[in-house]
Specification:
two-stranded antiparallel ribbon; 12 helices; about 35% helix; about 15% strand
Length: about 300
């Protein structure tokens, strides 16, 4: 097991433990160091400007100086890793049904761009019509180690083979040893499987807080933590056992579900904090003031502007 990923990042670096193998040491250590600086994470690419998870969204994110491109993964009927957020194609293509019910050939035939022009006429572009769904292999083939990837495993309970297929792909392409990837998930099981397959991959535990039905406190969607008002150091340490960070929602229907003390406590337990999905400049500034370590945003240019 990689000891460095079980310690607070600053401690690991100070002790020189962020070096799992000699050939990987420099790049992985540099990634851990970089993650301690603020990271602009392009949510599904620059998805406020172009159709999510398409070439235009990724290219715009790169042009806007994003530090990471976020990719959501599902699997096709024939076992291909597909970059798409929803587990169905209904919202973002002209097709219907679950991703896993379609072959790669059928998925590639769908129009994944025209919906954006209809939903966001202020950012519409005729060139977006007919944009294809992408595979993970295509994205890696295009960008290689020129970018860093922030990959989310979606609905892994539907795809028990997804974790191994993902890790094998990342290893084969040299993205782990080059310090080019972070993996996140709401599924603790998915992250722990990945940690067992390759403990050198930085992992981030996603959490979603919402009010209890009886109105008494907050619940976390998958039960990873208790109410943030009751969260303990032990709860954060349980996550730090396999992950380097936590990715929370900040609000629910306009009401805060975490605060600055949540960030402070996570930091005290050696965890990065990467909240999602922040598009309002005032909210961006508020979270910068809290000291978060990065943000997911549909508008990387907007976040960069607030940072300046």
């Amino acid at each position: 097991m990689n000891i460095a990923l079980r310690l607070p990042l600053a401690t690991a670096l100070a002790l020189g433990l962020a070096t799992p193998l000699a050939a990987q040491a420099d790049a992985l250590e540099q990634q851990l160091a970089d993650l301690q600086d603020f990271q602009v994470i392009a949510h599904r690419g620059a998805s406020g400007h172009a159709p999510e998870h398409t070439w235009p969204a990724y290219e715009k994110a790169r042009e806007m100086g994003a530090d990471y491109l976020e990719l959501d993964l599902h699997m096709s009927a024939d076992g291909k890793l597909m970059v798409i957020h929803d587990d169905t194609v209904d919202r973002t293509t002209d097709g219907e049904g679950r991703v896993k019910e379609h072959t790669l050939e059928a998925l590639k035939a769908l129009d994944a761009g025209s919906w954006f022009n209809q939903a966001h006429p202020e950012h519409a572009d005729d060139a977006y019509a007919g944009a294809e769904l992408l595979t993970l292999d295509e994205v890696i083939d295009r960008y290689g180690t020129d970018v860093r990837y922030y990959i989310e495993t979606k609905s892994p309970e539907r795809y028990p083979e997804l974790q191994r297929a993902l890790v094998e792909t990342l290893e084969a392409e040299g993205l782990v040893e080059s310090g080019s990837v972070v993996i996140q998930s709401f599924s603790q099981d998915s992250l722990q499987q990945i940690h067992e397959l390759n403990a050198d991959i930085p992992l981030v535990q996603l959490v979603w807080y919402y009010p209890e039905e009886d109105g008494d406190g907050l619940a976390e969607w998958t039960g990873v933590t208790p109410d943030p008002a009751e969260i303990s150091d032990a709860d954060f340490q349980a996550i730090a056992d396999y992950a380097v960070g936590i990715g929370p929602n900040v609000t629910y229907e306009g009401e805060d579900v975490i605060d600055a003390s949540f960030v402070e406590q996570a930091h005290a337990n050696g965890l990065l904090v990467h909240p999602y999905t922040i598009n309002d400049p005032e909210e961006m500034q508020r979270l910068l003031d809290w000291g978060v370590d990065g943000m997911f945003t549909n508008f990387p240019d907007r976040l960069k502007g607030v940072m300046e």
